[in-house]
Amino acid sequence: MFQRPQHLLSRAVASHRVLFIEEPIYQPMEAGLPRMQLRRTAQDVLVATPLLPQGLDEVRADAAQRDLLDALLDGPEGGKDIAIAWYYTPMALSFSGHLQPAVTVYDCMDELSAFRGASPGLRLLERRLMQRADLVFTGGRSLYEAKRGLHPSTHLFASGVDVHHFAPARNGTPEGGEPEDQAGLPHPRLGWFGVIDERMDLGLVGAVAERRPDWTVIMVGPVVKIDPASLPRAANIHWLGGKGHQDLPRYLANWDVGFMPFAINEATRYISPTKTPEYLAAGVPVVSTPVADVVRDYGEAGLAEIASTPDEVVSAAERLMARPRASWLPQADQRLAQISWDSLWARMAGLINQVSSRRSAAGSQTRAMTSSNAAPDV
Ligand SMILES: O=c1ccn([C@@H]2O[C@H](COP(=O)(O)OP(=O)(O)O[C@H]3O[C@@H]([C@H](O)CO)[C@H](O)[C@H]3O)[C@@H](O)[C@H]2O)c(=O)[nH]1
């Protein structure tokens, strides 16, 4: 999955060495555990995954991650000073709170406390992170409104888009051809890509497919935290699993409508789905349930149809399929041109530079960049 952290941190490598600490993986006890597993991404981000023995309690797991992190930073991949500690989850404070970076950034991309399986300690750690952060970035409008009162330097950075990555889908199937698992499925097609978890309205997916057995519903993405047995099954629903980001345009190129069947609940109250501008960049019109940020950022501008019930989704999709691209694509392009990941990163980097200039004037030095995350991080 190529998500917000990957987009931003792969741009950070132009000016920093980026070390990204992943969530730990627990394994049966064996010699050599705990240890840090390292890999370098194509974008030159060093990704470190703590491998821990199963059965560690929380305190020991935090201590083990702290030791592994310190050993990594003391070694050749570390650096004398840390320029930026970049957090995607407050939970990472429990093993990195002793670090003394020049600048601390909290890039809050979701209200994690509302997600299934969230740690009860998350809210307290978020308060601590807010106290130590120099900058708080928020991944969407609703999150910004929820967090801006908690930190004086909170900034709205809603999802960006790599137009160049998705635009080839507008003009026939990009190089590589239509993926085998999609080729041959009948049109019209409603497609989704993204994580499939408790945020999805599975009942809606099943009901739309049932209303229109002549349509095909294509679901791309990993099933996470929910029982795969709970997915609606029908001859016209195709659960294709997770795909590489590079392959997404080949799927989108042959969709008639981009579908966002989010459940409307606590877990989706603050989300700002990156897939909205990505569908549009591929020339695929969007129908979504009324997620607040989708309604405000896209629905009200006529760039997404908002529908709650199966009948509303079917009617909206029919309207979108009948609408010529030329009637909406120029307006979509205007919006997309304002939200490239490049421009978001440039603005973020500007804010970080302001803070670090102030710090270095006060005597701090910067060298390496580290970040820890629950999802990713530098
Ligand atoms: O098989 C796949 C499917 C998708 N992708 C890429 O992953 C991107 C993220 O998808 P997802 O995790 O479903 O997240 P989404 O964009 O809908 O929403 C989350 O992101 C934040 C946002 O970043 C804040 O700015 C939001 O609030 C979150 O809930 C997807 O866009 C695909 O490009 C893939 O690679 N492979």
UniProtKB/TrEMBL annotation:
EC number of this enzyme: 5.4.99.9
Enzyme class name: isomerase
GO MF annotation list: UDP-galactopyranose mutase activity
Matches recorded under Gene3D superfamilies: 3.40.50.11010, Glycogen Phosphorylase B
Keyword terms, alphabetized: Isomerase
Pfam families named in the record: Glyco_trans_1_4
SUPFAM superfamilies to which the protein is assigned, alphabetical: UDP-Glycosyltransferase/glycogen phosphorylase
Protein name: UDP-galactopyranose mutase
